[in-house]
């Protein structure tokens, strides 16, 4: 790119050249403020928009192809996601260390996850240092687990009565987590203090009794769940975004971040709750032989974006037969209907599965001989009769488990 050098010989020349320079300086700022996002609305339709700002009223947007700015109210917003994140085609291999040096992810009972490293433990409060979010203080009763970057977090176990540290060499240390800092952690077991350096840790699962109380949040209060560039996901009752700054929280609990760190904004307790953002109570994958394929949230079971035909779906769950996923439906559940579509992942000719949706133990949808190349019709099931659990099941079909990679597409709970 060539730049002209101004030769200011007169006032008019000076003004003209100054205007040209100002225009050049404004281009990056305008580009930041007008970066293209994908907006998903309450009717599950998507469109590309430029986000000018986000506040309590909703998202102020302009259309990609021009036009005046308009405000989309929160009641119509399911999710906003930057196009670059939604259109990623080749996922990076699982990292062992993220930019900034963080090696672990902290998983919380409200569905949040925070990339970073432990900073300390004082009483019942764990201090966590995140490159994207800064220091975050979390009550231990909110912590489900800690997992090394690229590792699947330990499965939930309702019978777990002690803290368990899973080591890279395959061993475990069980007891009470009594000390944590940036060098390692200490487990009290049979009266002995067992120090474990972070270099040896694969994952940590906290005792179920420590997390049963939950986080005390109001399940019916509207808020947002914000995804950051390092993979962290943070919930907040309030959120604003402008050209260069994003703010989570309100009053004296605000947390400011660079706007560029935000890659997605999802409404919590709005018109829709995505199952991929809700905490599972059970996740089972039973391989026909030996290879295990854990469920992946918002990705295929191979870690790729979920696609069918020429469409990419930012929300979904990738599994492999046999798979059973279970969610607890809270009492007084404000959501009235379960909704999803599904399809075989890719064009594998031997894939054949049976699909079931259950409320408690009652099958409300079943389809046998699901094969590649067809996207299901929209499946909807009323959440009536005080159902306590929702189960999504993908069973072996006529070809056992051969090529049985499968995607639940946009599975969600609907408020209306």
Keywords:
single chain, 416 residues, SH3 type barrels, Jelly Rolls, 3 domains, ten-stranded antiparallel β-sheet, eight-stranded antiparallel β-sheet, 34 strands
Report what the structure shows:
7% of the residues lie in helices and 47% in strands. With 416 residues, the chain is mainly β. It has three domains: 32-90 and 237-268, no CATH class; 104-211, SH3 type barrels (Roll), CATH 2.30.30; 274-414, Sandwich (Jelly Rolls), CATH 2.60.120. A ten-stranded antiparallel sheet has the order 9-8-7-6-10-15-11-12-13-14. It has an eight-stranded antiparallel sheet with strand order 4-3-2-1-5-21-16-17. Strands 22, 24, 27, 29, 32 and 34 form a six-stranded antiparallel sheet that branches. Strand 8 and strand 9 form a beta hairpin. The longest helix has 23 residues, at 11-33. It is globular and about 60 Å long.
Please give the largest β-sheet. 10 strands, antiparallel
Strand order of the largest sheet: 9-8-7-6-10-15-11-12-13-14
* Estimated share of beta-strand residues: over 45%
Supply the CATH class of the largest domain: Mainly Beta
Whole-number count of domains: 3
- Give the N-to-C terminal Cα separation: 53 Å
**Unreliable runs, pLDDT <50, ≥5 residues?**
1-34, 85-100, 210-217
In short:
With 416 residues, this protein is mainly β.
Topology, element by element:
Blueprint: H1 11-33, E1 36-41, E2 46-55, E3 58-63, E4 70-73, E5 77-82, H2 83-86, E6 104-108, E7 113-122, E8 125-130, E9 134-139, E10 143-148, E11 163-167, E12 172-180, E13 184-189, E14 192-197, E15 201-205, H3 208-211, E16 223-228, E17 233-236, E18 239-241, E19 245-248, E20 255-258, E21 262-268, E22 272-274, E23 282-285, E24 296-297, E25 306-308, E26 311-313, E27 316-320, E28 323-328, E29 337-344, E30 353-359, E31 362-370, E32 379-382, E33 389-396, E34 405-414
Antiparallel strand pairs: 1-2, 1-5, 2-3, 3-4, 5-21, 6-7, 6-10, 7-8, 8-9, 10-15, 11-12, 11-15, 12-13, 13-14, 16-17, 16-21, 18-19, 19-20, 22-34, 23-28, 24-27, 25-26, 27-34, 28-33, 29-32, 29-34, 30-31, 30-33
